[in-house]
Specification:
elongated; 4-stranded antiparallel beta sheet; 6-stranded mixed beta sheet
């Protein structure tokens, strides 16, 4: 029975860049690509794909007679968006905010389920470029005080990245 090892050098790339797919197979006599690449492939090899603008899925099927092995992998693409905001001037209780230390921007693939964040340590910053992974991304932010306490989340926005 054929067996395949199939990896991408980078499983997440910047929009407009490439990655290299590398594979090895055991007990196979031929391989064929499908999905976002196609055609016959060697039983072992490497191929650079891209430049990628959106998520791509690559399938490799290797055969030996009537037996097949299938391996699939996806490469996500990060695209940049610029987020702008107005810094808070008051605490929740209405008192003047005097110890603003920075912000944290969160993103994730589901509402209120964030898997990535970036901290901004300058309270004077009011815009930041964020790299979003392909697909639907939920983005929100918090304010940080001098002791590292976080505010409640801001309104959440949804962006569908290519």
């Amino acid at each position: 029975m054929p067996d395949i090892s199939f990896v991408a050098t980078d499983a997440v790339v910047q929009s407009g860049t490439t990655t290299t797919l590398t594979w090895t197979s055991a007990d196979s006599t031929s391989c064929r690509a499908s999905g976002d690449w196609s055609g016959p492939k060697g039983t072992d090899g490497a191929e650079t794909v891209g430049p990628l603008q959106a998520r791509a899925t690559y399938t490799l099927t290797c055969a030996n007679g009537s037996e097949n092995a299938v391996a699939m992998l996806a490469v996500d693409v990060r695209s940049a968006v610029t987020i702008e905001w107005r810094p808070p001037t008051a605490n929740v209780d209405g008192s003047s905010l005097e110890d603003l230390a920075g912000f944290r921007i969160y993103q994730g693939s589901a509402s209120r389920d964030y898997d990535d964040s970036v901290r901004i340590n300058d309270p004077a910053v009011t815009r930041h470029e964020v790299l979003l992974i392909s697909g639907r991304r939920f983005v929100t932010m918090t304010a940080l005080d001098a002791e590292g306490n976080e505010s409640a989340f801001s309104n959440e926005v949804v962006r569908v990245a290519p």
